[in-house]
Every structure is written in C-alpha cells, then in structure tokens.
Amino acid sequence: MKKRAKEIADTMLDSSDVHIVSHIDADGITSASIAYAALNRAGINASVQFVKQLEERIIGDIKEKKHPLIWFTDLGSGQLDSLAALKCVITDHHEPQGDSSGNFDRGDILSYSTKKTIELNPHRYGIDGSTEISGAGTTYLVAKEMGDNVDLSKLAVVGAVGDMQASARGKLIGLNRKILAEGEREGVVSTTMDAQLYGLESRPISKVIEYASDPLLPGLSGDEIGCMNFLEELNVPIKEDGGWRKWYHLDNSEKRRIISALADRILNRGYPPSYARSLVGEVYIFPGEEPGTMLHEAKEFSTLLNSCGRYRKGKVGLEVCLGDREKKLKEARGLLKGHQKVLVDCLRTIESQGVEQKEYLQYFHGGYNIPETVLGTVAGMVLGSGRVDRSIPILGFAYTEDDEGVKVSSRATRSLVDSGLDLSQVMSNISKKVGGEGGGHAIAAGAFIPMGTEDKFLKLAENMVKKQIR
Ligand code: C5P
Ligand code: C5P
Ligand code: ZN
Questions:
Q1: Short-list 91, 86, 121, CA closest to 30
Q2: Yes or no: domain 2-152 corresponds to CATH 3.90.1640.30
Q3: CATH of 354-469, one of 3.40.1280.10, 3.40.630.30, 3.90.550.10, 3.10.310.40
Q4: Ligand 1 pocket, 423 CB below 6 A?
Q5: In the predicted model, is pLDDT for residue 91 greater than 60?
Q6: Which residues hold their Cβ within 5 A of ligand 3, which is an ion?
C-alpha cells in the first residue's frame, strides 16, 4: 500500500491543478480535507466538490469539466469502469466492483493501475475497508508520502470514527490503529478509556443518558425526569455554579458510579454481559481543540461534519477541518441543530408507520418524509435501537429529492456479516437487475433504483440474503 501511495503522491506532486471529488459524510469531508491540505502545502492548486454518490449522471458532469487531474476520495472504487477514461486517482475503502473476495493477487493489483487511473484501496491487499481503515485513512496514506503531513492523522481518526469503524470493538483496529499511534506521537490525538456515549463534551450529563441510543439504556433512554433522578440517587450533581455539568467535568469516582449503575440495569434486565461491556471503550480526544467543544472529541467532531455534508454544506465542514474556528464553525453548529431535528422527525415517522418484517429482511419506506441523505443514518439507528429484530438486516427506501428515483440504504450487524451476509454485493447486484446502481460495505451499503421497482428489489434482495446467510 505504501508503494502505491507513493506512486499516487508523486503523480500529485507533478501536477499544478487537482480537482477533489468526495463523499458528503464525515469520512468524505475529512478525506477531502486531508487531500486539500496536502496539495495546498505542496503549493498545488486544489478545488473540491462533494457528491451524494457517484452516479453515472454525476460522472458525466464531472467528465465535461475536463479537469487536468481528479482525486476521488472515499468513493470511486465502485465505479472503476465508468471512470476508466478519466485521468484520475482514487483513494477509497469501499468494496471494489466486480470482486468482493478481498483476495487479489499481484496481477489484479497491477491491473487497476493503468496509465490513467491509479487506485489505492485496502480491499486489494486483503485489508477490510469497513473496519480497518476509512476513506480518510486511505487518503492520509497518500498525504504522508506528499510531505510532512502526520498532523492530518487527526482527521483520519475523525473519518474512521464517523464511519463507525471503532464501534464494534470499542476501539480502532488494523491500519486505523497505526494511524492513531502516529497521531498520538505527533501530539494531535490522545486516547482515553471512557464511556461509549455520545455528547461527552457538549451535552449536559442527564441529556447524555436520556438521548443514548447505542447502546440503548433500559428504563432511562428517552426519560428526562428518570435520568435526573438516576443521577441524584448516585449523588452526581447535574449543575455546578449555575451551569450544566458535562461528562468531562466529572471525576473518576462519579464516572465509575454512573457506569456501574448503568451496567447493573442492563444485566438486571437480562441483556448479555457483552452489552454492558460495550458501555466503556476508547475515546479519542484532540488536545489542540478547546475542551467542552464538539471538536475536542472524535464522535462529536464527526457528527458536526455529517450535519454539514448531508445538507449540501460539505464545504463548511471542509473549512472547519482546515482550521476555521469562527464563521464556519458557527455555521456548522447551526446546521447540527437542524440535523438533530431531522433525525428525531425521521425516527418518529418510522415509529408511527412501523417496520415491515419479511423472513430474511425487514424494511421501511420513508417516501418523501425521510431525506435520502440521512436514510442510511436512520436505518442504522433503527437497527441499533433494540426495538427491531437484529437477526436480519434492515432496508430503508426514500424518494430522492429531485424525484428521479428511489434511494435504498441497508444496514446489518457484525454477526450477520460473520455468517456470510454481504450487503455490498446485494446492493450492487440487485440494483443492477432493476436498472439501478449500488455498492458499499458488507455491513452497510446503499443503492439508487428507478421509481416503482421497490417490490421487485425487495423480493430479489431477500432471496440473495437468504443464500448468503448460512
Ligand atoms: O460511504 P462510507 O464508507 O463513508 O460510509 C460507511 C457507512 O457504513 C456509514 O454510514 C457507517 O455508519 C456504516 N457502518 C455501519 N457499521 C459499521 C461500519 C460502518 O453502520 N460497523
Ligand atoms: O447511503 P448509505 O449511508 O446507505 O450508504 C452506505 C454505504 O454504501 C456507504 O459506504 C456508501 O458510500 C455506499 N453506497 C454506494 N453506492 C450507492 C449508495 C451507497 O457505494 N449507490
Ligand atoms: Zn467512508
């Protein structure tokens, strides 16, 4: 990978103008920021464009612009055929089209470096791109070969956390871990063991518990008064000097009391010990950022970026990654409020209409009520909520904003993937059969299909899931 990264770095350093095309989520925004910063530092002109997905239509538009060189980050490997005629490089971690085995011999690796296209993708080297390295991490490998860019490892950590690569085991693994170690050595990241809850820096403690969804806290999630009483019983004051206390204000004994009490509740209600264990894991802190802000901790940082890209404001997120702590940060915070409201509304919609159960999958159709850009996030939240069957994957549908078709998002669990499920294959194969396009990761994948093909898609997808799961 290092050799291929160097090859790409040399190509970049030989250019004077590079156009970056990236994905709209946190990993895509951090990927673009790493690429942009590395080019900028090397004195190369760079422009950036964010896209929801790399559809044929979008590729057509990009081709028309006749950019001298294009750098696709956090996407591209699923569309190698369509990109073949473009002079471009790709740093991506999605399953490459064609073969999902992850076992490529040297010949295969070489075949994806033509004179025009050079691709860096972990799957080509037997490395799992859904758990061991993100799009930002893959892009960082190139940035490192372009100059003194180790500080950008911080953004690679945000990207990996944003793609939920630390979620399954409560820590980053594989190449992500190496990148993390580089960031620690550089002093831009520090790792602590702490609660795996969301909002440790920016939310009042009672809200951290009340809003917890992954893991869901039995008898507490969603219950405002209950959470306040819970903390009072544990002798943890929720206010101090008139202001709300945040998790990072708590001393170790207070944190321990809360986590033990949460674990007791989980175990007393018959959940498995692994569920209680998942309350604690690694938390990634950025010492260069101000404590008590969302930028100080990786999960919150990535959520802030998602709030930008998913509402056509990827460039606001980019500016924040590149260091804007004034105007753009303020704008991002405003977008976050809207994002949180959208998610709450979407979850209410699904709660009221319910999730349809089939034998090998379950699904919901958000119609015009769920924006396509948050469909995947919502599907993941529903599956993680503990309120639906976790032994089968979930699919979500929603109409695209310009009425051009239907967006599909699918999510699964680690154990389903371990038993053979590969949603990336399902999404790319079945979408093709109904005239659409798709791909992604075994555990999380998406597609875009023509209007009215949902039923056929469901039937074919269920068949394929059935065959995959043994
Ligand atoms: O396009 P990209 O690779 O950035 O998106 C990855 C998606 O996979 C994210 O939406 C992330 O939430 C999802 N994912 C997941 N569970 C995992 C790993 C990734 O839902 N264990
Ligand atoms: O959009 P969603 O969050 O459901 O996407 C899940 C994963 O599938 C992401 O990694 C995304 O980049 C990928 N995807 C894809 N092709 C599509 C739609 C999604 O590769 N047409
Ligand atoms: Zn990604």
A1: 91
A2: yes
A3: 3.10.310.40
A4: no
A5: yes
A6: 27, 74, 135, 163
